[in-house]
């Protein structure tokens, strides 16, 4: 597992808030925040999902609806975590249906769905 902080630029303050809300239930997300038109998201990802966050960086508009993305890989993160059980369903919290995604063959899928492969 590794931590990566995404800093993304949205086209407006409202769009930044909308993006943050849409991805707010992502099970890989540890923290999210918005400052004006910037979106900040801290992810805790399995190493096998490294390709996914690089894809987000290379295709920010297609994946998150952002104009651009900068990634910062962190060595250490210290925070208080509150545990909880996931109620796995067909659709991920962001609305995706994993098997319908063209990248699903190489992806682990979303841990919040029944399609998670880990």
Structure write-up:
The protein has 118 residues and is of the alpha+beta class. The chain has a domain of 73 residues: Lrp/AsnC effector binding domain/regulation of amino acid metabolism (RAM) domain (Alpha-Beta Plaits, 2-Layer Sandwich). A hairpin with a 2-residue loop joins strand 2 and strand 3.
Sum this structure up briefly.
This protein is of the alpha+beta class. The chain has helices at residues 13-22, 50-58, 60-64; strands spanning 2-9, 29-35, 38-45, 68-74. It contains 3 helices and 4 strands, in the order βαββααβ.
Stretches with pLDDT under 50, minimum 5 residues: none
Radius of gyration: 14 Å
| Global shape | globular
CATH fold-level label of the domain at 2-74 = Alpha-Beta Plaits
The named CATH superfamily of the domain at 2-74? Lrp/AsnC effector binding domain/regulation of amino acid metabolism (RAM) domain
Going across the biggest sheet, name each strand in turn.
2-3-1-4
How far apart are the termini? 13 Å
CATH architecture of the domain at 2-74: 2-Layer Sandwich
Oligomeric state: single chain
Q: What's the pLDDT, averaged over the residues?
A: 90
Secondary structure topology:
Elements lengths: L1 E8 L3 H10 L6 E7 L2 E8 L4 H9 L1 H5 L3 E7 L44
Antiparallel strand pairs: 1-3, 1-4, 2-3
Key terms for this structure?
single chain, alpha+beta, 118 residues, four-stranded antiparallel beta sheet
């Amino acid at each position: 597992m590794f931590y990566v902080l995404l800093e993304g630029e949205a086209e407006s303050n409202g769009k930044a808030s909308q993006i943050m809300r849409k991805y707010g239930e992502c099970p890989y997300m540890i923290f999210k925040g918005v400052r004006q038109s910037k979106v900040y998201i801290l992810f805790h990802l399995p190493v096998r999902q490294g390709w996914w966050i690089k894809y987000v960086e290379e295709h920010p508009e297609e994946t998150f609806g952002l104009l651009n993305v900068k990634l910062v890989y962190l060595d250490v993160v210290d925070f208080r975590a509150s545990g909880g059980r996931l109620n796995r369903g067909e659709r991920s919290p962001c609305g995706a249906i994993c098997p319908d995604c063209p990248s699903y063959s190489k992806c682990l899928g979303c841990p919040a769905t029944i399609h998670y492969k880990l």
